[in-house]
Specification:
alpha/beta, Rossmann fold, Helicase, Ruva Protein, domain 3, Arc Repressor Mutant, subunit A, 3 domains, five-stranded parallel β-sheet, three-stranded antiparallel β-sheet, globular, DNA-binding
Length: 407
Amino acid sequence: MRSCGVFRLQQELVQFLEDFASKKSVFKNKKVFQPSYKPATILHRNDLIEQMAKILAPVLKLEKPSNLFVYGKTGTGKTLSVKDVAEGFNKLVISKNIPLKILYINCKLKRISDTEYRLIAQLAREFGKTIPPTGLPTDEVYKLFFNAVDESERAVILVLDEVDQLTKKTGSELLYNLTRINEELSKSFVSLIGISNDLNFVDALDPRVKSSLSEEELLFPPYNAVQIQEILNERAKEGFAKNKIGQGVIEKCSAYAAREHGDARRALELLRVSGELADRSNNQKVTTEHVDEAEEKIDRDRLLDAVSTQPKQAQAALYSIISTSSGKQPIFTGTVYEFYKELCTRTDLRPLTQRRLSDIISELDMLGVITARVISKGRYGRTREIVVPKTLQAANIRRILQDALNL
DNA sequence: AGTCCACAGGAAGGGCAGGCGA
DNA sequence: TCGCCTGCCCTTCCTGTGGACT
């Protein structure tokens, strides 16, 4: 009996896969919509790319260019443009045999470059050194890196993407050390390019680092709706099959993205998910309804994903918050902690201190799951006012957390 | 003007896992 | 195996604070 059931299931699966494979997709080349995809031409960024190339040009004569700081909100083409310039230089490096090495590091990548040690170790590895993931003293790793760079006469351009994430976690010590690197080198030199989403990042820096890192600055302004539309049109031509995009779809995607500070990445994601939804519902064309649906789906998925990948303690904290919040009245740290302690005894979870829970609450706030702001209730103390946003699908999230916490 | 609440949030340090060389 | 190093998560201890109340 059982094997018969399995057989039927398998048959259905094969049928499904066959259908899927033979089904016409609205996409022609989906890769076009990946964030890492580099289009042949980068629209609306010519000036900035040119400026960047000019700033870095001395490197071709083995003169040290100024350090450069690139900033602008997410999806304004910073990384893309820097990579484009780097590619241009790399072509020359090969054809003219220039001893130039351009390193790109994303400081946000977990477990690779989110601490001082890891980042420097990663850099040293780029120069062919083997560094253990942990174990060595940090100054030892610095030494290894410096020696590796200085092995021969050469120029190095170090691109630190999302550099603001780095100082958030490790302080500005690392950046300070990097800006001083040339004092340790005799044969080579290193120029830094910092990329940041945080517009106030430089101002918050240690003045010594600030003056050094931002010898030159480039601001990437947000795209406007028309520009995003052109970018989407360009990608859609490559990514979608002919006549698969309905009236107003591109316009709607651009409008949504422009509303959120001109984020082209988000616009592209929206377009891609709209296409996927059209495929899934067997539609021949992407419609504006798919865009609306996609917008909702993206938000939902992001949040649910963030919640389900949280550590147990953070999940317990969130569960406590959702459970104590009655909807209308805001709740406070103390109330949440009481519930949380009780929850811990129910679930055999080791209760953390209120101090720690307080940090977890502010982490959840930063994640965007809840809003928590510090308020004063006068005579009744100072605390955090925690609000579960109406848009949060509290019931859904509660269910996920119940599963995760075995409730 | 002073008090006092209920925390926020900084600093220091403990304990752990993971890795190294000797 | 041992001593030493790291990052990470956490506790303990502490000082700071906005504004209602007196």
